[in-house]
Every structure is written in C-alpha cells, then in structure tokens.
Amino acid sequence: MVKGANVGLAALSEDVGSVMVSLGWSSATGEGDADVSVLLLDGDGKVRSDVDFCFYNNPVAGNGSVQLLGKTPTADGSEDRISFDLDAVPEEIDKVVVAASRYGGSRFGELDDLRLTLADSAGEGLVRFAVEEADEVSAVIFGELYRRSGEWKFRAVGQGYASGLAGLATDYGVDIDDDAAEEDAREQGEQEPGQGQECAEEAPLPEPAGQPTAPARVPAQATGARADDAPAAPAQDGPAAPAKPARRPRTAKKKVTLPRTTRKSLADNESWRSSRLFPVPALRSDRERETRATSVVLSVMAQVPEFGRRLTAGFGAPAGRMETFTEVTLPHGESPRRPDGVVRVERAGKLWTALVETKTNGNALKPDQVQAYMDIAARRGYEAVITLSNDVALDGSPLVDVRIDGRRKHKVALWHLSWAEVVHQAQMLIRHEGVGNAAHAWLLQELLHYLQHENSGCHGFQNMGAAWVPVRRGIDDETLCQGDARALEVIENWERLVRQVCLRLGGELGQKVLPVQRARRGSDPGVRRAELADHLCEQGRLNAEIRIEGTPGVLAITADLRTGKLRTSIEVPSAEPGYPLSRVKRLIRRLAEAPADLHIETLVDGPGAGPRGTLERLRPEPADIVPKDGAQITGFRLSLFKGMGSGRGSAETGFIRSVDEAVDRFHAQVVAQVEAPAPRRFRSEEPTG
Questions:
Q1: What is the pLDDT of residues 81-131, one digit of tens each?
Q2: What band does 688 get if pLDDT is binned at 50, 70 and 90?
Q3: Cα angle vertex 118, ends 114, 122, to 5°?
Q4: C-alpha R_g of the chain
Q5: Are 69 and 83 in contact (CB under 8 A)?
Q6: pTM for this model (two decimals)
Q7: DSSP conformational letter for 575
Q8: Are the beta carbons of 29 and 19 closer than 8 angstroms?
Q9: CA distance 309 to 317
Q10: Where are the alpha helices (DSSP H) in 55-178?
Q11: Alpha-carbon distance 466 to 647, whole Å?
C-alpha cells in the first residue's frame, strides 16, 4: 500500500474477525529499537480514558480485544506484533491508531525498512505498508483500523511527530501529568515538523481544571513517555495553581505475583516432599508424558485467562471464554484420529477452534500426523493446528512441511509453540507482571514446577543434532568444507539454542531479551544461515549477540570449536567526563564483585587495539589499561572465558548446559555489576492556570 490508501479487510479475506498487525524495522548495527503503542478512539477522535491507551506498561486494552504480544526476532532484526480481536472491540470505538515511538533523543531516520504488515487469523499476509521520510521524528503513526458501515477498514498513514509519544498522545486526548524539562522542550521546538501536520508547537493545550470533558490523565511513568518525547507546554497567564502531588503509575487492577522462594517454618521440611497439584514421579513412558503435559497445560490455560490469552493471541484467537479438551476422537477416513488436545474460544456467539499435537523429550513431530490434523481442521471449519514440542521454530525453516489444498475455501493456520516459550510466559506472569488473583498465581506456580521437573519431558531444546559431533571433528582435523549440509544444521540448532537462552533469561529477569541479527536489509533467512555455515567451516566459531533491556550494551557469545572455549563479553561505552585514569578507576570500582578472571580491554578511537588485562591484576594497578599514546578511550570490553562442553545434549558435560551456565554467570557477575546509563526523567512542575 501507499501512504494515504485504504482498503476494506473483508475484501481481502474471510478470516478477519481477528487480525495480527506487525511493526518492523532494522538497523545496520542491529541495535535500533522502538516502543509500540495503540490508541482506541471514540467518535470524537479521542480516547475515552487511560485504559484505551495500550503500551508496554498496559499491554491489554479494549476489554482484551487489543493485546501487545511483544517483540519477536526476524531475519532483518525484530518486529512487534499486536493482536486485534475486531469482533470484540467495544462498539463505542470507531478507530484504532497503531503507532511507535523512540526515546533517548533517537529518531526514526536511524532505522531502516520501517514497515507494517497485517495478517488474517490464518496467518496469511494481507497488507504491507512501507513508511518513508521519517528522518527527524521520534514517533510515527503507521496506520489505523476504522469502522465504515459496519465493516473494518485499514488506512496506511505514515505520519510523523517531532514531539514524540507525548505529543502524539496529547492529540488524542491523553494528558501527561508531568511536563518535560524546559531544555527538552526547546530541543523539540528546534526540530523540523514531522511528515504530518502535527508537531510540537501544534499540540493542543490541556483543558483547564474543572472542565467536565477533560482528557484522560496518564502519568508520564505509566505511559512510557520519556523526557525526550514530551511536548513543550506553553505558559498561560494567570496565577499558578497549587502543586499536584506526585502520582504513581496506575494499572487496571491489582495484580498478584509470587515470591521467588518460600520461607521454611520447620527444620524437618528440608527432606519432606511438598504436595503437588500435578505430580510427576509416576511418569514412565513418553506417551504418559505427552498425555499428562497436554492436560496440565490446557487445563491451566482454561482456568487462568491471562495465561490462555497470552499463548493463543498470537495465533489469531479472540479474547473470550476458553474451553480445552484432551484425547478427542475425530473421523478421518477408515481410521479416526485422536489429536492430543483441542482449544476452543467463544466470543459473541462465534467459535475459534484449534487442534493441538504435543511431543515431549526428544520426540519429533510426525509430518503425517500434522498433515492429517490439517486436513481434519479444514473439513470441519477449524481455524488452526498448534504443535507443541521441545523444538524451536525458525523463520523460513518450518518444523513440518504440510500440503495446503488450494481448492479448499477454508484456510487453516499451522502454528508452533516451544515448551520453553510456555515456561517463559508462566514466569513472566507469576514473577513479574502478575495475574488476577492468588489462586491463579498458585496454579501457574504448580504448572511451572511440573514443566521444570526432570521427569516431565518439557525441558525445551536439548540436542544440537546428529551433525554436531561430525562437524566438531571436521573442524579439529580441518576436513570440513564450505557448503557442507552438516554445518548448516549446526547453525540452525545454534540459532534455536540462542533463542531459548533469550526466553529463559527474559523469564528470570522480567525484561525483554532478544537475539540481535545483523543481516543485510531484505536478506533471506536461508541465505543468511548459509553464509554463517560457511564462516563456521572457515573460522570454526559460532557467534551470537543478545540484547537485554536496561543494559548498556550487547551481550556477545562466541563458541570457539577449535579451542573448546566459550567467550561471553559486553562492550561498555565510556562517555563520562574526567581524566582517563579516573574513568578506569570508576569502572573497576563498579566491578568490585566481579570475578578476578574477568578480562578488561580498553577500546580506543582509531585503528589498533587498546591495552588489556585481568581484573585481578588491574585492581592494584588500574593505570595499566590507560593508553600510553594518549589515544581517546571510547569504551571497555569485558569478557569471561569458560570451557565448552563437548556433548551435543544438555547433560553436565554437554554443550547446551555450558552455554546456559556461561550466560548466567556473565550476566549475574558482570553485566549486573555494570550500571546502565540512568534514563532522563520528567521534572514535575506546577501547572499553569
């Protein structure tokens, strides 16, 4: 689509009761990022209240009809996905605006390939819109969904805001309690206006106190607006009103989370076994594990709405009453089929149904089984087939190839979940985001205990594949040649492992953790992996980068198959004022609890490498890593080295276990010790009358 164009969704597909909107971008360094927000507007073009403003601190709006699903890695970087249950959008809502904003002085001109894609409930792409000429703006409206004569339509907008998220939100009736500092306002005023007519100077003024139609007031902390995003508030004549007390961020309702550890009240209970809702010691076969795991997960999905919605929203399911079933018999020729489970969601008298096929331990999905379930779903008018296993799906590399009969009018979507992703979503809810009541939190805790038990078979990706040992031997004796298919298999499994590391670490920290993929714009995932496989054959190393929200740099992982060493590292920028020796001393003081074998390398401006040394040696002699030639220090690289497991599995001597331990140790003992640059905050000011 081109800017300003619009299209009716019903003309593109019959499955548009639920749609998925994805916002994507890329950057040459892999470090660009933005925050997605959605505004639900009434007939006057304003939000009804703060609950109609959907952002990362309020990811669900419109009675569950709009949900932010977070970021997912792609071949070109990452994209944010938003689930819309259009049949459930409140009748008072006429328009839904989809936008994104940057912070910290960043602009969208620093990102490449700004795009919006819209897919129907079967996952088939319907709309693609590329946003252009967004160089000097910090917020962009990508598009909007709106009603016309009972039909939902989409309009490609591509409008920029130099005034950032706060300026955009203000135009739609969201008022920010805390005004930006004056110098930030002046900086915004000096920027050129965005692509649309709106800019910082044109943002509407807040309604005077006492007006009955005042817009919804949302604290700056709650909306996620940063100091760089705030609009300049023009001064008004008249006496100043009394200062308002600081307001805490609001949430829709009180959430319940559970503590990480339970305090023991008796000395004896160290050896006692706690009673569990979902016992696991009696499981003896893979069939029992599959049946038990399916029943446990589906039952908790039906009883805990937040959890069920989190797992199914990305598959096009509406927000409604969920029912789940196991071991359902369905006719299929002469031999009836029994899928492991069925998920059914009802909303406004309409049903969304998905068949579920589950595998545990190292069991792979069977193409003939999945194909049969796809055929059954198509004949019976079901919307999806969901596979659930320890494997991790990759872009452009499906786990199961199925045939789609183009003659059938009804489309069925095939989706995949990893057990690691199920564990991640449960951790995020009970440890960090919270659920509706204590009983739901307890159910999730019991589910998490079951999935993480060694007997459950739901341990996530745990095998580097049959090619792992031959590739390592080929690298050792230098017989591995470029183009070898075994090297490509190792690269694919390495990518699966890195994605699982991100899920596990993100669930523990409650932060966004995503792999960084530095690929050329528009490159095909298969081509990118083939190039990485050639590098593996030539250099004998596996490389990956992980971005952890709130940390000052990218965590890099290098597995050197020639030396059997794992290296974890991070580059910390040094923009602090002061003499070089003072900056080095400050860094070493911040690393007081870091391990003595930590390697520190000084990064300098210009060609050549800076001095380096271990923390143990530098503590008494920090001047040893100050450049002797007076070169400008740009930062420091912190690295830890660890022996690499040789086995292809996750046993104590396995490669997967060694990667997990290396990342955990480096984050806990190094990254957590390095203070991230403190974000700039709003300065509260007295409102003008």
A1: 999 988 888 889 999 999 999 887 888 888 888 899 999 887 888 999 999
A2: very low
A3: 145
A4: 27
A5: yes
A6: 0.75
A7: -
A8: no
A9: 8
A10: 164-171
A11: 11
